[in-house]
Amino acid sequence: GEEEKHEVQEFPMERVVSCVVEHITSPTLSTQRWSAATVRNLLILSPASLRALTETGGLMILASLVCGQDDDTKAHAASALQTAVTNSEYDQDLLGAIAHSLDYSLVPQLLSPAAATEHICATSSSFLGTLLLPLTCISPSPL
After folding, report:
1. In whole angstroms, what is the distance from residue 4 CA to residue 39 CA?
2. How far apart are CA 47 and CA 51, in angstroms?
3. Which of 10, 63, 71, 96 is the most buried (most CB within 10 A)?
4. C-alpha torsion sign, points 116, 118, 122, 123
5. What DSSP character marks residue 17?
6. pLDDT tens, 44-77?
7. Residue 95 to residue 83: CA distance in whole angstroms
């Protein structure tokens, strides 16, 4: 038999990422998990998705999920952020956006009284450890 050839359509990555980011803020936990995992896959499949994720505010949302209560959602969000750092190719603007998102979301968590619990500190320090090395190439911005 003759094999069918399927034409692969290119989707505008900005629109795809924007749709997924909208679902990250869903009140449904399973939708948040799915969205965070999908972002990671998009980052792996398309370099353009990182810039789109930055422009849609998705980095900030992912960083906030790392501080959430659900371990699975935190793991998916952390994995997506780690993939973002890896795929940034040390682009100063992209790494700066990732660092800013983490600073905005994680630092208040680490400074809060709740951070005294062993679980939060262990999770935060483990996650920060996976991200800090690539972020050290960012030159400090003048104040």
Report:
1. 31
2. 8
3. 63
4. negative
5. H
6. 988 788 989 988 889 889 988 887 888 899 889 9
7. 12
Environment class of 129 (CB within 10 Å of its CB; exposed 0-12, middle 13-18, buried 19+): exposed
- Output the pTM of the full model: 0.69
Residue 5 DSSP code: -
Distance (Å, rounded) from C-alpha 60 to C-alpha 72? Answer: 18
How far separated are the first and last CA of the chain, in Å rounded?
68
In this structure, what token pair is assigned to residue 130?
A: 């996976």
How many alpha carbons lie under 13 Å from residue 6 in its C-beta half-sphere? 3
The Cα 111–Cα 35 span in angstroms is 28
In the structure encoding, which two tokens stand for residue 24, read together?
Answer: 């990250």
